[in-house]
Amino acid sequence: MADKLRSVLHFSFFIFHFPFKRAIAGSRFPVPGSRLNGPRTTGHGSRITILLSLILFPLLYGCGSMSSKTYMDSPPLSNSYNEIWEATRGAIAKSFKISSEDREKGAMETEWSAYQSVAFDDGTRKKVFAKIRKNDTGAWTVSIAVQVQEQSTVDGGTYNPSKFWSNTESDEDEARIILTNIRIKLTLLKKNP
After folding, report:
1. Which residue, 66, 41, 72, 55, is CA-closest to 12?
2. Residues 6+ apart with CB under 8 A from 125
3. Are strands 98-102 and 158-167 parallel, antiparallel or unpaired?
4. pTM of full prediction above 0.85
5. How far apart are CA 89 and CA 110, in angstroms?
6. What is the pLDDT of residues 95-133, one digit of tens each?
7. How many CB atoms neighbour CB 74 within 10 A?
8. Structural domains in the chain plus CATH codes
9. Of 9, 19, 108, 155, which has the fewest beta carbons less than 10 angstroms from its beta carbon?
């Protein structure tokens, strides 16, 4: 988190500050406000730079930390909808507590499953999202996304007593494991009706 913040700050400084303040030693084109033109003054360029940084920094940082759930899809399934629903529910409930489900819409969501680090005052948590849809050929498909968040009490190198959560990339491996468990359950249902 701190590295991400640092990189966004460096990017915004380079993009907005460098073109306005090109006080490079030996430059043939002095820039207003540089030491080559006499005493340093704060002109409109500095105010614009600060204003643009204040406006664009939250936008840049916000885009970097947006939640991006990556759904992993099962191959087309030939089982009935009820069998697929129950297999999906069972595979997810094996490791997560389901918080909401809508059988008519084919959607499930779990509570956050937390892991607390023993060595550090931070941790991670995961949440599963499932969708059951019919594809173009009429077969059912299960889509699973496992959203991951990291918790930290360190904010930019300083201790912050209020813990905050930040989104990280989806856990595609966990999603594949859930999809594999669903397919195993459905295969066993076909063999033992």
Report:
1. 55
2. 112, 113, 114, 115, 148, 149, 151, 165
3. unpaired
4. no
5. 10
6. 999 999 999 999 999 999 876 555 555 678 899 999 999
7. 21
8. 2-64 (no CATH), 72-191 (3.30.530.50)
9. 19
Cβ atoms of 187 and 79 closer than 8 Å: no
Tens of pLDDT, residues 141-186: 999 999 998 877 665 655 555 567 788 889 999 999 999 999 999 9
Length of the chain: 193
Residue 56: partners with Cβ closer than 8 Å, 6 or more residues away: 12, 16
| Residues 153 and 170 sit within 8 Å (Cβ to Cβ) | no
Name every residue whose Cβ is closer than 8 Å to that of residue 130 and which is 6 or more positions away in sequence: 88, 92, 107, 108, 109, 142, 143, 144, 145, 178
Structure tokens that stand for 59 in this block: 């936008």
The two three-digit tokens of residue 29, written as one number: 């084109």
